Amino acid sequence: MSDRNARNRAPQRRPDPVRRVAYQVVRQVTAEGGYANLALNKALRDARLGGRDAAFCTELVHGTLRWQGTYDAFLARCVSRPLPDLDPELLDVLRLGAHQLLNMRVDSYAAVDEMVTLTRSELGQKRTGLVNAVLRKINQRSLDQWISTTAPRPNEDLLGYLGIAEAHPRWVIEAFDRALAGGSTREHASGERAVSAPGLEDLLVADNEPPRVTLVARPGLADVDELVDAGAVPARWSPYGAVLDGGGDPGRIGAVATGRAGVQDEGSQLVAIALASAKVDGDDANWLDLCAGPGGKSALLAALMEDGQLTAVEPLKHRAELVRQNLRAIPGNHKVLVGDGTKPTWPEGSFDRVLADVPCSGLGALRRRPEARWRRTPEDVEELRPLQEALLDSAITSARPGGVVAYVTCSPHPDETRAVVDAVLGRRDDATLEDARALFPGVPELGDGPDVQLWPHLHGTDAMYLALIRRS
């Protein structure tokens, strides 16, 4: 037998298992509408990947999804037909390869070779030639070189440039710029829209930084020192927060495993603390979380109550069960109701404090939801608006005279924040907007008020919004 025949009969090399897991997760997200964090966590457990392998797989998945639109702009210049005409599974392989070549410290030969091997295993031999050729073209330039040759010039089209250079859709950048400018649409004298709000580029850069794991020590059950002893460091603003600087599995910490502490972004902690800190005269024993799932804010509010009952409302049964799990360690007779917050089953004016953390586009959490920026559309924001207004209306009606309502979103989009508050208060004569900035002691750069917008680039939190409303 000749050496050539021996080589032909040799078994094909198996793909790298870590890259194969990453590819399968990306396919779940792009083809099946899955959520990257959920799909990835399950895949890592199923494949028993840990340590460096888990870290590599996480960066490959999140980075590929985060930079998807930018990589597509580069890839469109390397193939002979429009990207929509490519098989979706082939396009995902090319995106994974582009991320390794342009944004990870991976040897270029290994990156191309491994993606060709993965293609042969997952898609067949016929696709390997195209993958090899396209990735070799991608490797001919650095990320900065690709940006400079693909994106518009900043002085000609700043929106288009930032969209490519910082991997955000144009409409999202427009919304962020409006929010940073105080919600107004600014124009040049010529009528052309100005996109130059201070901090805009810093915000987009911060959105591309992987978020740290932030914990909350639920008052009365755990304290920050216990989390620090487990390897965390105190958070910047929240007196109950701590950060796992080196990453790792928070479930290994005893306080988290038993429900005495939880995983919760610091911005989410701050808006719950603000509601609990607002001045209320008279009775203060009945609190309501109108949109409770999955229950992180419910648990913090319940732990902050010195005495009384929290009622948590969630329309979906499986999310209501998550709320119950979050409340399991909190003392007190707290209730979880499965129901529609826009159709209260309780009398008007039943509660002293009400949290309305309404469903939103989630544009304030793009750091931890890498697929959301490409999945969400302006139509999503428009479609959510009636629900947001209905929930805020219901929250105000549920509060007693003198009680307070916190309207909260995890989105800085002006059409989901101040526009909703203005629309609802404009129809009512029994509620007023109060200055909430004093409820965030020590937190700088909160703007002109009376509402509060937190930012990843300024505060290191998700872009949480809070408006404090008092029923009169």
TrEMBL record:
<keyword id="KW-0489">Methyltransferase</keyword>
<feature type="binding site">
    <location>
        <position position="357"/>
    </location>
    <ligand>
        <name>S-adenosyl-L-methionine</name>
    </ligand>
</feature>
<feature type="domain" description="SAM-dependent MTase RsmB/NOP-type">
    <location>
        <begin position="189"/>
        <end position="472"/>
    </location>
</feature>
<feature type="binding site">
    <location>
        <position position="340"/>
    </location>
    <ligand>
        <name>S-adenosyl-L-methionine</name>
    </ligand>
</feature>
<feature type="binding site">
    <location>
        <begin position="291"/>
        <end position="297"/>
    </location>
    <ligand>
        <name>S-adenosyl-L-methionine</name>
    </ligand>
</feature>
<protein>
    <submittedName>
        <fullName>16S rRNA (Cytosine967-C5)-methyltransferase</fullName>
    </submittedName>
</protein>
<feature type="binding site">
    <location>
        <position position="314"/>
    </location>
    <ligand>
        <name>S-adenosyl-L-methionine</name>
    </ligand>
</feature>
<keyword id="KW-0694">RNA-binding</keyword>
<dbReference type="InterPro" id="IPR029063">
    <property type="entry name" value="SAM-dependent_MTases_sf"/>
</dbReference>
<dbReference type="Pfam" id="PF01189">
    <property type="entry name" value="Methyltr_RsmB-F"/>
</dbReference>
<dbReference type="Pfam" id="PF01029">
    <property type="entry name" value="NusB"/>
</dbReference>
<keyword id="KW-0949">S-adenosyl-L-methionine</keyword>
<dbReference type="InterPro" id="IPR035926">
    <property type="entry name" value="NusB-like_sf"/>
</dbReference>
<dbReference type="InterPro" id="IPR018314">
    <property type="entry name" value="RsmB/NOL1/NOP2-like_CS"/>
</dbReference>
<comment type="similarity">
    <text>Belongs to the class I-like SAM-binding methyltransferase superfamily. RsmB/NOP family.</text>
</comment>
<feature type="active site" description="Nucleophile">
    <location>
        <position position="410"/>
    </location>
</feature>
<dbReference type="InterPro" id="IPR001678">
    <property type="entry name" value="MeTrfase_RsmB-F_NOP2_dom"/>
</dbReference>
<dbReference type="InterPro" id="IPR049560">
    <property type="entry name" value="MeTrfase_RsmB-F_NOP2_cat"/>
</dbReference>
<dbReference type="InterPro" id="IPR023267">
    <property type="entry name" value="RCMT"/>
</dbReference>
<keyword id="KW-0808">Transferase</keyword>
<dbReference type="InterPro" id="IPR006027">
    <property type="entry name" value="NusB_RsmB_TIM44"/>
</dbReference>
